[in-house]
Amino acid sequence: MAQRYGGAYSPDAAPDTPPPAQGNGQAFKRVKRSKIGMRSNLLFFAPLPLAIRAFGDGATVMATKLSAFGLLILAAWLTREGIRAHEAYDARRIARRPAIPRKMFGSVLTGLGLAIASTASAFDPLSAAIYFVAGTVLHSLAFGFDPLTNKSAEGVDTYQTDRVARAVEEAEKHLAAMAEAAAMTRDRQLEARVAGFAGTARDLFRTVENDPRDLTSVRKYLGVYLLGARDATIKYAELHDRAPTDAARHDFMTLLDDLERNFASRTQKLLTNDKEDLDIEIGVLRDRLAREGVRDIE
Q1: What is a single Pfam family found in this protein's UniProt entry (predicted)?
Q2: Helices (H), strands (E): how many in the chain?
Q3: Which of the listed residues 68, 183, 232, 288 has the most CB atoms within 10 Å of its CB?
Q4: What average pLDDT does range 282-295 have in this prediction?
């Protein structure tokens, strides 16, 4: 259904509608084009002829073709989810490998679906095996493999890495729930504002991943504050659906502004502390070099 655009500069904008936040442009600069595109979407359409032509040739042929159709659709869904999980893995400095290798399962199911489809008219084990191998290999070449190892920062033990990975994964779930709730309002400006806050929050995530020692000092931001922001977004979406008001929208936008300032401030403080730690280490190293009789090079 078509949606009319509205905003601060629209002819029918409310008098108290604030202009778009200046910082939102940074959020769009962070956005990378997703690899979930035409190739993965075509996987959902390719098996349709099997479903269309499954009827009319007897119960055995129908069952065979519908089974192949189901396997290929499941393979397409696993592939798309695997690509999404791989993108999230690549975006983080510290991340755990996906618990389920979705793309690899998708490759096997694609080969299996093609093998079963090839036996619909006549059972030929050799042809089925060829289709299975070809489908599995071609799918793997087209979409690659899932990450098989955990990513960790250099010099950081596994325990610290797991703590950060778990905290960031939970925080990402809160951001995803916020984006989903904002989309329910069909308010483009509000959706963009939530996306802007998510970008600022992810700056904090990346900073903690660079130095897992900071996790303790920002645990409330990744847990309590994001949980509260998620709940507030869901409640606003529910209110917007029942009885939207300009006052509620203004209050929610103000809340997002305050949260974004706090998250940005915390990120900047962590970066400043890292710079101070580096200056201290450089000073200690210069003193040691001086004691060893090595001339300091500016």
Answers
A1: Halogen_Hydrol
A2: 11, 0
A3: 68
A4: 57
